[in-house]
Amino acid sequence: MKYLKKILVALAVVAALGVQADSNKYDGENRGKPVMPAQINQKWKQECAACHMAFPPGLLPAASWRKIMSGLDKHFETDASLTPQETLEITRFLVENDSNRWTANTAPLRITESAWFKSKHDSREISPAVWKRASIKSRANCMACHSGADKGNFDERSIHIPQ
Ligand code: HEC
Ligand code: HEC
Question: What is the distance between the alpha carbons of residues 101 and 93, in angstroms, rounded to a whole number?
Fold first, then answer.
């Protein structure tokens, strides 16, 4: 009996560690649901992909999307403003499909400023020289390295860093 108890305790510890390792994978982003929902809002797809790829809603928490959507007239030094109706519709889509595993209590305006992004793209993974390549230009240019980014696919097998 004593042995059995020890084994059970050991198993519980292993299980707990397993859960821990899993939730650390995206550090606030691994949500057990895809970053891109199955049902896409057409307005969002049209308007938010005009200057860059439409960033999947599951990459930021609702608070970030609300901030971004309420400041479109001064959007990263550009004017991305929409009609109130469009703004409302797109905000709803982003908020409904936001990250539900955001552990940090921050609401950055950029995906690239989040802790999980930094940990996945630190200097051990990608050297500072790589970021300066003309083929990449910006950290926000997800598609340069993740060919399936616009479909919410960040699978390690589809990562190719361009020269
Ligand atoms: C008029 C052009 C334009 C439109 C339209 C536009 N954006 Fe942007 N957006 C930008 C620019 C410029 C940046 C900064 C890109 C960079 O740093 O490389 C940016 C950056 C972002 C970022 C941060 C990326 C990062 O660094 O993690 C998010 C999130 C974002 N946009 C969301 C949206 C959403 C949501 C919409 C639709 C409502 C939208 N954008 C429409 C120009 C635009
Ligand atoms: C310069 C190339 C490059 C750019 C640009 C880039 N990434 Fe990555 N990304 C990588 C590499 C390399 C990894 C693998 C890191 C690792 O193995 O831990 C990665 C990993 C990831 C992961 C984790 C994948 C997994 O299964 O663990 C996510 C999510 C991700 N990136 C999202 C993004 C988003 C969102 C953008 C744009 C805002 C972006 N990346 C821009 C190179 C890039």
Answer: 17
In angstroms, what is the span from residue 147 Cα to ligand 2's centroid?
A: 11
What are the pLDDT digits (tens) for 94-135? 999 998 777 778 899 999 999 889 999 999 999 999 999 999
| 13-42 average pLDDT score | 59
Do 25 and 156 form a contact (C-beta atoms < 8 A)?
no
- Sort 65 into a burial class: Cβ within 10 Å, 0-12 / 13-18 / 19+: buried
Nearest ligand to the CA atom of 91: 1
What is d(CA 89, CA 43) in angstroms, rounded to the nearest whole number? 8
Distance CA 123, CA 61 (A): 25
DSSP 28-61: S---SS-SS-SS--HHHHHHTTSSS----GGGS-
C-alpha 152 – ligand 1 centre gap (Å): 16
